[in-house]
Design a protein that fits this description.
It is a single chain. The protein has 2 domains: about 90 residues; about 230 residues, Bira Bifunctional Protein, Domain 2 (BirA Bifunctional Protein, domain 2, 2-Layer Sandwich), CATH 3.30.930. The protein has 13 helices and 10 strands. The strands form 2 sheets. A 7-stranded mixed β-sheet has the order 1-5-6-10-9-8-7, sandwiched between helices. It starts with a helix and ends with a helix. It binds phenylalanine (PHE). Phenylalanine binds next to strand 9 and strand 10.
């Protein structure tokens, strides 16, 4: 009988150890330890045995049950751990996908162009200056030799801010007020460029935007001539566009420079041969320039008999378009990612 008990224990243990789920284990447990189990029937048989034998067999049955119970406990703990692991695994969030599809952005074309321009001018010995986008009438007009009622005011479609006296505060119409701020703050010699955002009351079309960007140049030193201006713009042009593109100056008018000129470069699309973009002239207009007007020097307290200088200003956005062969200014401000990511 002892052998039968041992055999029954071994079979029970085997069943316990092959249970694969907690539910399966519960079924096995009732089968091998429950009222109808073999081990329980041995207990019922004890009654009919000799007291001595009953003691031995009873001990064997109890030991067998204890072993099987221990095996069930161990198996349960194991299955519980496995089940918990499976659950965690199934609930795991796969974050690697969002990591791999994450793309690093880059600077906007206008920012890239501004930085490249700064690099070229810094390479030529210029420093970088900045000024505010909201300006007073003094900086945007008056100090630049454009008094109130001067006809040149109509050159600029000005946006006024509803601040202080009427028409006393403007969104700057050009970067030229930074010339005044730089001269206010420092003594010559000055070799500075000032990039920035400017504003005009314009309706958006392929070549106009109410908000755009300019870069201003200002040089103040002794004995500066128109030749220095022409040479500086030519060096800049060949440096920025490569050796095949050159510059030219055409007489023009600005209140803050005298003489004044329009600054053109060879058309970058046809390299001067004449095409649709340049209106068959072979030239593209980039901006204005000239020698600083004596009245501008007087406005900042510089002696025009001692100091001379030149200034220039041109559009950054148009330059970016020319360099990349884009024909609509609005593309730069629509911020369509499919357009922007090409640059
Ligand atoms: N400020 C002028 C403009 O916006 C350009 C310019 C700058 C002209 C400096 C001469 C000297 O049109």
């Amino acid at each position: 009988m002892i052998d039968d008990i041992e055999l029954s224990q071994r079979q029970a243990m085997e069943r316990v150890e092959t249970a694969t789920t907690l539910e399966h284990l519960r079924e096995v447990e009732t089968e091998v330890l429950g009222k109808r189990s073999q081990l329980s029937t041995f207990k019922a048989l004890l009654r009919d045995l000799e007291p001595n034998e009953r003691k031995n067999v009873g001990r064997a049955v109890n030991a067998a049950r204890a072993e099987v119970e221990r095996a069930v406990g161990e198996r349960r703990a194991l299955l519980e751990r496995a089940e918990r692991r499976d659950q965690l695994e199934s609930e795991r969030l796969d974050l690697t996908e969002s990591l791999t599809s994450y793309r690093v952005g880059h600077h906007h074309l206008v920012t890239q162009t501004t930085e490249l321009l700064e690099d070229v001018f810094v390479g030529m010995g210029f420093t970088i200056a900045e000024g505010p986008e909201a300006e007073t009438d003094w900086y945007n007009f008056e100090a630049l030799n454009i008094p109130k009622a001067h006809p040149a005011r109509s050159m600029f479609d000005t946006l006024y801010l509803d601040l202080n006296e009427p028409e006393s505060t403007v969104l700057r119409t050009h970067t030229s007020p930074v010339q005044i701020r730089v001269m206010d703050a420092t003594e010559p010699p000055i070799y500075t460029v000032a990039p920035g955002r400017v504003f005009r009351r314009d309706t958006a079309d392929a070549s106009h935007m109410p908000v755009f960007h300019q870069i201003e140049g200002l040089v103040v030193d002794r004995g500066i001539t128109f030749g220095d201006l022409a040479g500086t713009l030519e060096s800049f042009t060949t440096e920025y566009f490569g050796g095949s593109i050159h510059s030219r100056l055409r007489p023009s008018y600005f209140p803050f420079t005298e003489p004044s000129a329009e600054f053109d470069i060879n058309c970058v699309f046809c390299e001067g041969a004449g095409c649709k973009t340049c209106g068959r002239t072979g030239w593209l207009e980039l901006g204005g320039c000239g020698l600083v007007h004596p009245n501008v020097f007087r406005a900042v307290g510089y002696d025009p008999e001692v100091w001379s200088g030149f200034a220039f200003g041109f559009g950054i956005d148009r330059l970016a378009l020319m360099r990349h062969g884009v024909d609509d200014l609005r593309e730069l401000f629509t911020n369509d990612i499919r357009f922007l990511e090409q640059f």
